[in-house]
Write a structure and sequence with these properties.
The complex is a heterodimer of chains A (172) and B (181). With 172 residues, chain A is mainly alpha-helical. Chain A is 73% helix and 0% strand. Chain B folds into two domains: 95 residues, Rna Polymerase Sigma Factor, Chain: A (Orthogonal Bundle); 77 residues, Arc Repressor Mutant, subunit A (Orthogonal Bundle), CATH 1.10.10.10. Chain B has eight helices and no strands. The longest helix of chain B is centred in the C-terminal third of the chain and has 24 residues. The chains are: A mainly alpha (172), B mainly alpha (181). The complex binds zinc ion. Zinc ion binds next to helix 1 and helix 4 of chain A.
């Protein structure tokens, strides 16, 4: 192997990446080749100079300001918008409506069960028109209230989250 | 990936502010230094490293937990720096490195060292950005080729070649500047 081939491995050697036979062979060559030794020394010096390049060491007050600015720029993670989209995609949030329906039917059923006159069992279709209308309006109202409540809850949550992220800073 | 890092990421995903503070505190100096060495400018280093934290926070969903948190942060920072350099390449001569503490040189040796450091800084600034990036990650951040390849989104072979070219170029430039002293 000629000097040129050895010189190509010098940087790896300095990095400690040259192992086993290749390393031993290079060291044997370096022992009797002043030119390659000089090359090695030059590379070592270059690396030392690069490593000694100064970098600013900002004071602690810089880092405090740095973090403060970051906290102000941070917005809640994108999970919230995704949740909103998911909610908006649902036609009417069927779960609460179904739950309300079950509760109503159960309530009506239990009232009839416990009433002393024990009127004959009727299904909902036999309720008169006014009753049906009132019931469906109640259902709509309940449904709306249910949705409103959820929206309020979400807004509170968003507020809490944004406060938690932007909010009063602890002294660090 | 370390357990502590996984726990931190879990807290970040829950929107925990103290976790964000911890993330910044843990990595601010590394990211700032990397950005500074890429741009040689304190303001740019501050802006770019801050932007990296914001992108990391917003992009938590895409973070692959098989990767290293610091590798990922370095990659975001490096991409921002490379974009920045591309956009500001035509701005003419590089500004001299700024430092916070810069007392006057006390001796001739120190003066000479300053001159050499300046020459090195200039030579580094003249390297193509990919070579500069590889050199800085290797020499200043002490990263293995494998990790540098992950940061630069390239192969280990390319990293090796970039590193060798960068050192060789700096070596010949340094030789020249010392002979002229
Ligand atoms: Zn030789």
């Amino acid at each position: 192997m000629g000097c040129e081939a050895y010189r190509n491995t010098l940087l790896e050697y300095l990095d400690g990446d040259l192992t086993g036979g290749a390393r031993a062979e290079l060291e044997a060559h370096l022992a009797h080749c002043p030119g390659c030794r000089e090359e090695l020394q030059g590379l070592q010096e270059t690396l030392t100079f690069i490593a000694s390049m100064p970098v600013p060491e900002p004071p602690e007050v810089f880092w405090q300001q740095y973090l403060r600015e970051l906290r102000q720029k941070v917005v809640p993670a994108p999970r919230l918008p995704r949740l909103w989209k998911w909610l908006a995609a649902l036609p009417l949030r069927p779960m609460p409506a179904v739950a309300v329906g079950i509760v109503l039917i159960l309530a009506v059923f239990l009232t009839w069960q416990s009433s002393p006159e024990r009127p004959p069992m009727r299904d909902l279709t036999s309720l008169n028109l006014t009753q049906q209308l009132a019931l469906s309006q109640d259902l709509d109202l309940l449904r709306e209230m249910d949705l409103l409540e959820e929206i309020e809850l979400l807004e509170d949550w968003e507020l809490i989250r944004s406060r938690a992220i932007l909010g009063p800073q602890k002294a660090t | 990936m370390k357990e502590a890092e996984l726990a931190l990421i879990a807290r970040l995903r829950q929107g925990d502010q103290s976790a964000f503070d911890t993330l910044v505190r843990q990595h601010q100096k590394d990211l700032f230094r990397l950005a500074y060495r890429m741009t040689q400018n304190v303001e740019d280093a501050k802006d770019l490293s801050q932007e990296a934290f914001l992108r990391a926070y917003r992009g938590l969903g895409s973070f692959d937990e098989r990767s290293n948190l610091s590798t990922w942060l370095y990659r975001i920072t490096m991409n921002l720096c490379l974009t920045h350099l591309r956009q500001h390449r035509s701005s003419g001569e590089e500004t001299l490195p700024e430092t916070y503490a810069d007392p006057s040189p006390k001796s001739l040796d120190e003066l000479e060292e300053r001159e050499v450091q300046r020459a090195v800084a200039e030579a580094v600034a003249e390297l193509p950005p990919q070579q500069r990036a590889t050199l800085l990650l290797r020499v200043h951040h002490g990263l293995p080729y494998r990790e540098i390849a992950e940061i630069m989104e390239t192969s280990e072979g390319t990293v090796r070649v970039n590193y060798f070219h960068a050192v060789a170029k700096l070596r010949s430039q340094l030789k020249g500047s010392r002979e002229s002293l």
